[in-house]
Amino acid sequence: MKKKGTWIRAGAGALSAAMVLGSLTVSPIVQAETKEAKAGYEINYALNSKVTASDREVADKWGPEKAVDGIVNREADKSEQSRWATNQSKNQEARTLTLDLGAVKTFSKFVVEWERTNITNFKISVSDTKDGEYKDVYVKNDGKNISSVTSKIQLEKPESGQFVRLTVNGYTENPGSWQSVSLYEFMVLGEAENLSAGAAVAEDGHEADTNFAVANVIDGDYTTRWASLAEQKPHWISLDYKKETTIQSFKIHWERTNATKYRLEKSADGQKWEPIVSFEQKPKSYQQIINLEAPLKSLIRREHRKTELR
Predict the structure, then answer these.
(1) Which residues on neighbouring strands pair with residue 119, listed in sequence order?
(2) Residue 52: which of 41, 42, 63, 39 has the closest Cα?
(3) Which single residue of 27, 110, 122, 161 has CA 20 to 30 Å from 43?
(4) DSSP conformation letters of 78-111
């Protein structure tokens, strides 16, 4: 019996020209919905993390878990909004949101999506242990209302920790009429890990009399590439992670955007393959990011069905 693990496969069918691929990056859970996030290829370590809060306004909704669910729905009805909200405090009692990232992570940026601009003072602290000493990595204590409902905080140097705490200790009544803390999302952003770097790769073949072998897709060098055989038949490459691996995002560096039909597949044993996602049009960019709605666990293959040479 073949050892259970994770394979990812990509491939093609009838080729009118050889398919060429610069590199393939496979990453854990990633949020890359904006141009800025895609450019930096950042991972939101806060997404769906374990989270606790010092206070909440209503017992059955607007809990701390809403601050890490990836949803910012300002236009929804108040009762349907996905946000963390606290009770009022005329004394501006400190309200805290504490995230457990599951392991020590390295990050360099935070994004807070507030409901209102009534926030005047807050800080972000990190720790390697839940009950350990927290180190402040960002502090806003000027007493002035934030100018935007989106606070983007870029650290001067990367920091690390398993626990990240947002403490809000200054908030006014205005704008609005409720002196409390309310936010849609708290993001902890770092550079995505490339899981493909340690994978075993295979191919159905590569362009004859060249060094365009499949190992080039995971070597981290964008000047090398894999090129398929120039034959009218399906072509594929596969990545074997040797163990069950959780994946939610792919980044492909194409040499050309000439692929017109291709797909990604997954397998738990390298024998039986299931489709992940397929495409029937050319990539819009030389760097294609594919984010899945939910993480998957498997070994991965990619199939190219058809390409065109322009």
Answers:
(1) 171
(2) 63
(3) 122
(4) GGG---EE----TT---EEEEEEEEEEEEEEEEE
Q: Quick one: residue 37, left, alpha or beta (phi over 0 = left, psi -120 to 50 = alpha)? A: alpha
Dihedral angle sign, alpha carbons of residues 209, 213, 219, 223: positive
In sequence order, the 6+-apart residues with CB closer than 8 A to the CB of 65 are: 51
The residue-averaged pLDDT of 192-213 equals 87
CA distances from 74 to 4, 150, 179 (A): 43, 12, 19
In tens, the pLDDT along 125-179 reads 999 998 899 999 999 999 999 999 999 999 999 999 999 999 999 999 988 789 9
d(CA 108, CA 165): 15
CB 29 within 8 A of CB 252: no
DSSP letters, 18-74, are --EEEEEEEESS----SHHHHHHTEEETTTT-EEEES--SBTTBS-GGGGGSS---T
Write down the pLDDT at residue 254: 87
